[in-house]
Amino acid sequence: MHVVYGGAFNPPTVAHLEAYHFLKARLPIKRFTYLPVSNAYTKSELASDYHRLNMLRAMTHDLKDVDISDLEMKDDTFKGTYQSLIRLSDDTTTTVAFVIGADNVPSLPRWKWAGSLLGEFKIIVLGRDGIDARKRIEGDVFLNQYRDNFIVFDDFNCPVSSTEYRRTMDSSMVHQAVIDYIEEHDLYSR
Q1: Domain range enclosing 7
Q2: 33 within 8 A of 81, measured Cβ to Cβ
Q3: Per DSSP, what are the bridge partners of residue 97?
Q4: What is the DSSP string of 10-43?
Q5: Region of 80 on the Ramachandran plot (φ > 0 left; ψ -120 to 50 alpha; else beta)
Q6: DSSP label at residue 46
Q7: Residue 93, class by beta-carbon neighbours within 10 Å (0-12 exposed, 13-18 middle, 19+ buried)?
Q8: 89 beta partners
Q9: pTM above 0.90, yes or no
């Protein structure tokens, strides 16, 4: 299985790293890719592509089976997760799965090419904020038709977010290598 974990990683947190370790212990992962969105994706307070890519590299420097992809950062416009997963699929024998938090389940029907995304790829849902992802999937007519393509881990519990880090600058929320990088480049200053 090729697991792709997309996001802003603004900055990457211990939750992003814990997701890797959690999934590695539970799934037959051949390849794990962090896929940061580019600045072409509209999101407030987004550090530059360069810094977010380097913070991910710093956080994962000792994980030999992890890739950091700049695929979306090379795009002029945001093409959507579906297009990125197609481009990251290097063969037809490996299942490709995309990681999301349970808080993103309700918005999935509005994602670009949502039907193709959910029909052609596995979606790994990690527990977040006590949200019952299975109930949300089953309760949504659109999502329910793809329910067999969801892999839900309600037992993932790492209540840390990039937003909360930027708000509090709590160093326990990020890996030491990321803290060092943030300090060296004076990121997220108030």
Answers
A1: 2-184
A2: no
A3: 3, 122
A4: SS--HHHHHHHHHHHTTS--SEEEEEEPPTTS--
A5: left
A6: P
A7: exposed
A8: none
A9: yes
Cβ neighbour number for residue 163 with a 10 Å cutoff? 13
In angstroms, the CA 25 to CA 156 distance is: 12
Domain count, the chain: 1
pLDDT tens sequence across 16-53: 999 999 999 999 999 999 999 987 766 667 899 999 99
Residue 71 has pLDDT above 70, yes or no: yes
Please name which of 86, 76, 69, 164 lies closest in space to residue 121, comparing C-alpha atoms. Answer: 86
Helical pair 176-184 and 49-59, crossing angle rounded to 10 deg: 150
Query: pLDDT (tens digit, 9 = 90+) per residue, 149-181?
Result: 999 999 998 989 999 999 999 999 999 999 999
Whether 91 is covered by a domain: the verdict is yes
What residue has token string 């209540």? 159
CATH number reported for the structural domain that contains residue 49 in this entry:
3.40.50.620
Whether residue 114 contacts residue 142, with contact meaning beta carbons closer than 8 Å, is answered with: yes
